Amino acid sequence: MRHLVLLSTLLAALSAAGCASASSGGLPTAPLVDACPAGRYVAFTIAIDRSATPPVWGVGASGQRLVLVWPEGFALAEAGVLDPSGRVVARAGQVIDDAMGGTDGSGADVICGIGGQVYVKH
Amino acid sequence: MSMVTVGVDVPTSQIEVGVAGASASDRDALAEVLAPDVRVVAADPLRSVSLPSICDGISVCPLRAGLDVSNLGYEECTSNDFFHDTGSGIIWTSTSGHCFSSSWPNWYEGRTTAHFIGGNVVWSFHGGMYVDAGLIYQSSTMPKNLVYVSSGQKGRAMNGYLTNSQQTSGAVACAAGITSGYRCNYVNGTNLTVSTTVGTWYHAWRAGFGSGSGDSGGPVFYGSRDMGMVDATSGGNTYYSTIDWIDSEFGVYPCVTSSC
């Protein structure tokens, strides 16, 4: 049973991911990774408040709040969350039902796939 | 006697034929005729699983590897094999470790509470993980070695598994998942160290087919042999945990007979 890990002990032990910058419009982002976990987040609704920190979060079906961290190169603009190509991947009020990724050690939900596209190192 | 599987064992360049309903002496006789290029092994017959109408088309119930499973609050993934705990004798079912959440401990087939599977048991992921896998309590009375491949073959029986040394680059691997369905290609990387959003993963294997949203946890197999569990994707590749590493982590083996 080596390396058996219970999530509850890890949440407190591991460091937080995601850092916001001016270029991302305050959106927390994380460096691109080699591979994106292929689990699908249960559908959540995008909430945007530009005066809040962070300015974008998810609301689950039971009302729970998801702390969202986006791939490096994503940014918040007037239209919503943009990927590095400028495509809008999330708008306020939009239900997201195909996001891929998983929680990091801090409990943040780190997205690495959305809208049918995966964002990883090339 | 019927032939139910045919595969190529890349490391030995032999064709492996699985036959059902044959005695050992019949198989030996057949193997003698076909040797050395072909070897003959025993295989379970393909099962025609009788499904209630609610299961058809939406590919849920009865539980087997390759189906839609969710904790309804965190992630939706694909079921993997039943595993036998050699210490306790308990039979678990499984999916990817990153699909688990302590806040959403109960697992269901599909997106509703209609078909309860069981609760979280243990899971492994986050920095320095050797596998990305987890185990779920279950009380299914269905055969324990079935993999859902497609609507035309709802229950392919597994009768063995491949060790790490049998999963070399160039070996064929296939997978089943709730988004990408059934796909096959070659293993193109072994024992890799990979960064993912949930941490660094050691001992990852890689195959040359992609995976989509929700495919995590899906069975990787070839013919009627289990190989591992889909966990992550990058472009046209899928990264998976091997059976050997899942065993090393949890002390469990995949069920390769109907009674496990």
Task: Describe it.
The complex is a heterodimer of chains A (122) and B (260). Helices cover 6% and strands 37% of the residues of chain A. Chain A contains one helix and 14 strands. In chain A, strand 13 and strand 14 form a beta hairpin. Chain A is globular and about 35 Å long. By secondary structure, chain B is mostly beta strands. In chain B, strands 5-4-8-9-10-7-6-20 form an eight-stranded antiparallel β-sheet. Strand 3 of chain A pairs antiparallel with strand 5 of chain B, so a sheet runs across the interface.
Number of beta strands of chain B: 20
Q: Proportion of β residues of chain B?
A: 35-45%
Shape label of chain B: globular
Structural class of chain B: mainly beta
Task: Please give the radius of gyration of chain B in angstroms.
Answer: 18 Å
Fraction of residues in helix of chain A: under 10%
Low-confidence stretches of chain A: 1-17
Content of β-strand of chain A = 35-45%
Write down the secondary-structure element order of chain A. HEEEEEEEEEEEEEE
Terminal Cα span of chain B:
23 Å
Kindly name the structural category of chain A.
Answer: mainly beta
Largest sheet geometry of chain A: 5 strands, mixed
Give the beta-strand count of chain A.
14
What summary fits the major beta sheet of chain B?
8 strands, antiparallel
- Tally of helical segments of chain B: 2
**How would you state the average pLDDT of chain B, rounded?**
87
Query: If you compute it from the alpha carbons, what radius of gyration of chain A comes out, rounded to the nearest whole angstrom?
Result: 14 Å
